[in-house]
Amino acid sequence: MCGRYASTKDPALLAAEFDAVDATGDEAPGADYNIAPTKHVMAVVERKPEDEELERSIRVMRWGLVPHWAKDLSGAAKMINARAESVLTKPAYKQSAMKRRCILPADGWYEWQPGEGRKQPYFITLGDGASLAMAGIWSVWWKDDVPTVTCAVLTTDAIGAMTEVHHRMPLLLPRDRWSAWLDPTSLDPSELLAPDPSIVDALELRPVSMAVNSVKNNNPSLMERVSLNEEEKPAPTLFELS
C-alpha cells in the first residue's frame, strides 16, 4: 500500500525530470516530507487541449480519488490507493484508469514493518536523488461549477525485498513506460499494470524514526536512516540493512 510519502522537489525540477511543463501556477505545494491522505500533491499528466498538441505538464491534485458521481468529498481518505489488479473493473476507478492516468513523483514512500509490540517505519527510495514515478489515476469532482481534481496511487503485490516489509507496494513505472502510461489516447493500460523487478531491485529500504508516525511532523529528518539496536529491531528479514 502507500499511505504516506515524500515529495520535496519544486515543480520546475520535476518538470525538467519528467520532460514536462510547469502548469502549477501559484497552487504548487511546498516540499512535503510526510504527505498524508487528502493533501495536495503534484502529478504529471498528458492532455490534448482542443486544436492544440499533446502536452505533458505538472499539475496539482488532491490525494484521495473522488469519482465524479460522488455526493461529497468525504470518501477521499479511503480511496488513496487503487489495486492494479482490479482498477479496470471497479466502477469507481475504471474510467480514470482508461482515460485519466497520471504519474505521482515521489522522493520515496513510507511503509511500516510489523514487529513485536510495534511497527518499524521504513522509507523506500532510489537513494540517488531520482524521483520514483508512482502510477496514478485522477478524476474531477464538481460542486457549484468549481472542480476538485483528485488522484489515487496504484498498488500491486509486493515483490523482491519489499515482501519483507509489506504485502503491497506502489506500482512504480520505469522511464520507458512513462509515455505509454500517460497517453490519453490509449484506453487499455493492462500491459503496464505489473511491477518492474529492476526498479524494486534498485530500491533502498531505509529504517527511519518513529517520528514519521505523526502527520504533525514534517521535516527532512523523517527520511534519514536510523540505527536499529537489538531492542528496537523487528523480526529478522531476508535482507540486511547496515
TrEMBL record:
The keyword Acetylation does not apply. The keyword tRNA-binding does not apply. It is an enzyme of class 3 (hydrolase). Pfam families: SRAP. Keywords: Covalent protein-DNA linkage, DNA damage, DNA-binding, Hydrolase, Lyase, Protease. Its EC number is 3.4.-.-. It comes from the Bacteria. Gene3D superfamilies: SOS response associated peptidase-like. InterPro entries: SRAP, SRAP-like. Belongs to the SOS response-associated peptidase family. This is Abasic site processing protein. The lineage of its organism: Bacteria, Bacillati, Actinomycetota, Actinomycetes, Pseudonocardiales.
